[in-house]
């Protein structure tokens, strides 16, 4: 059997150009992405159609549109050799930061207390989402150039490059995205060869910084409430506690096998606030239960594994670092978002990538996965 | 270059990935498997509401199965409160509803609509009722124009209907919304089949008076339960589950509606005739109120229980206004909502002589042949205080039977004098069931009152100023002997005393209700009778022949010949239906006399005990005697005669 499969594989690879990138497209990543984004569209619909009988499908069409656009972006980011990104990383970084500057100018629009969007027709563009991608690109570029030879000066340069967009995003403010960028930076510095002692120091500084920030006026009261809600689930004066409680009820109501699609009472009746975005996981958990939600987490796990694997087998360090950055974004989004819904992580506005409704984050995620596919299929050239 | 190789760091990252997912799976397991039972319960409590659906009440039937209280379906216009809350121009909305109702024959003011829509209601999920009993056209119009009337719906609700109008209103009672007190204190009945509790809600309709109140536990239906789903803002979304309400059990009465209506009509007509006319001593009769009681002496069943003035229970069916209610409380100075037959307390006058006579013979003071010379006046004490017969009539030497027939007060003054210092009369009164509530199955009964020497003393000691005399004088006992001054009784007590005498001494607890029937089932069907209310013997009066016979002889003479009520029974054939009774005329300071007549019939095998009491109406025979005669006409199946226009009858 093994013999046969190996020979079959080699015979196929020998056909025409064995190094053609298209032969090495990872179908698993593609399948996982497709599956999750379809689940996402259905879940967004189930969370927003309303109790009936007049069902709303605005969100359904919007999210489906984003997925279709996302598929195009994914194709683009797969087709164009990622080495081009190596050359264009700074340009991307610069454009993103200009957009971040513009968005906090009067050109941007405000919503939910954050100045984070450009109104483009019926859609709202959130440049901070793109900052994830540009930070990954620019850090991958820098770290691959440094080739593991990092001293204090370079460390400061890396931190500075990371900190600039973070500060701009903090001004909006969007704490969740700053958190994500921090995680991207940490993961890439780790794999990018930052000396262990620097990592220890950075970690200590980071922990002290977070604790300090929580107790300083930089973090607003409502942000503090959200961050600490999961630790004090009985504090009724904290509005975030309500969200977590509703989220728990919806998840628990799913039990082992779930209430069935469109049959979950909490989802249908809209008892979970922000269900189509931050709390989309509750829709999955209530309607499909432990089996369904578990399977979905498994798909995410497989996707994470494939990205991790791609990082390991990448042709060059630039590719590895790109994949690590994407992995960091995805893993953190899953763990923080699903963990928040289940009450083991603080409440932050971090969407569950590929599932939550939202144009900018969906498209950015497709682009990021396109990069990973890109790295994977060009690993022999 | 650092010692940490990139491969090891990649592995660290891989371990981190695995750890994250393991943590998520563990937590998911905990929430959806371990904690699920609790969370499911809380989730359902949040999205589901149960509403109680009122069931139709059981019917009330008379002894012959005629339906006295039934249900009908009323079309009620309701407005969804959550929709109304969102209406921008509330004034226009309200006046549009008022316009439609007025146009289709249910005139209503916009202000009334406004008031009803703003009336507080505990159950926000239920519509606010705006108008009941609207026509079919209103329903059709509103459903065709539903777009113009958002949130307005027409629902069917069960309402009480009274085929005999105002007849027996005091017995049947009325229904209305449960009070806050009632919600706390009412004991809910149980469903006869399932044993389910007939729970109450704040919008429940309950019996507030009469049989409706007494047999509330039987009449109330088993509420249905509607489970609806609500969204996160508490708005109803859809019905999840529905258990239909079950109608309550029917209650069949001993009451005969024909006899009841006959009694009511005779009472009303005679009061109308008497009102405004002078009685013998010139006092003008106001004749404001009265009552008639007809009992079955064999089992204590109530055949008729008439009171005047009375009310129309239908006025309560759709909710009564406070103004109208106040009006009913004051009808020419008396309340139409008081059932005088069970709560009116009157001096029994000469009808009490039954008790005095029983006491005198039983205690060996006299027998049926003990004569006393009635000179028209009886003197007591020194200086003597005079007590005289009505009109100062002299009856000469008479024994007990004649004394009863012609109603000699002097003979009974003499007996009262001889029994002074004893409690013989009070004891006999208690034996006949006076001085205590009869326990009839209707609310708000009075107990009447028979004064004793001990009570008088205690009262004086407690309130020396208001009651300056603490001693029991012979004069007190003399007045007691003729049922005056120190004694009151209710019409039902008087009728029951005569019923007890008629049946040989058994004092029953009177019962209006006979039995409880399964809803929509005939009593002849298997399981049709859920429960029969058995006669209850309260006590017995010892009536050996030496006690009973002379009294029967005396009372039998009352309706014929020289008897005080002879004039009232002129033309009534007593050959096969002999009426045995006693007139009573109780003096009331500054007013016309209370007219009483208490009786039973027929003589040999008594089936009926009938008593009437009429306020400020004159002598016993000229008012009450005649009313009772009209009732007997129906009971004896004799020609029914009109109430006579005569205002003067035999004395006493």
What does this structure look like?
The complex is a heterodimer of chains A (381) and B (652). Chain A is mainly α and 381 residues long. Chain A is 69% helix and 3% strand. Chain A contains 14 helices and three strands. Chain A has helices at 2-14, 27-48, 58-79, 83-103, 127-146, 152-170, 175-191, 196-214, 221-229, 239-254, 265-269, 280-313, 317-341, 359-377, and strands spanning 109-111, 114-120, 123-125. Chain A has a three-stranded antiparallel sheet with strand order 1-2-3, with no helix packed on it. The longest helix of chain A is centred in the last third of the chain and has 34 residues, at 280-313. Mean pLDDT of chain A is 88; it is low at 1-15. By secondary structure, chain B is an alpha+beta fold. Chain B has two domains: 50-136 and 153-253, Penicillin-binding protein 2a (Domain 2) (Alpha-Beta Complex), CATH 3.90.1310; 257-505 and 541-635, DD-peptidase/beta-lactamase superfamily (Beta-lactamase, 3-Layer(aba) Sandwich). In chain B, strands 2, 3, 4, 5, 10, 20 and 21 form a seven-stranded mixed sheet that branches. In chain B, helix 11 (257-274) runs antiparallel to helix 23. The radius of gyration of chain B is 34 Å and the shape is elongated. In chain B, 45% of the residues are buried. The mean pLDDT of chain B is 90. Classes of the chains: A mainly alpha (381), B alpha+beta (652). Chain A binds chain B through residues 51-52, 148-149, 187, 190-191, 193-196, 248-256, 265-266, 269-271, 285, 289-290, 293-294, 297, 300-301, 304-305, 308, 311-312, 320, 324, 327, 331, 334-335, 338-339, 342-344, and chain B through 1-4, 6-7, 9-10, 12-14, 16-17, 20-21, 23-25, 27-29, 31-33, 35-36, 38-40, 42-44, 46-48, 229-232, 237-238.
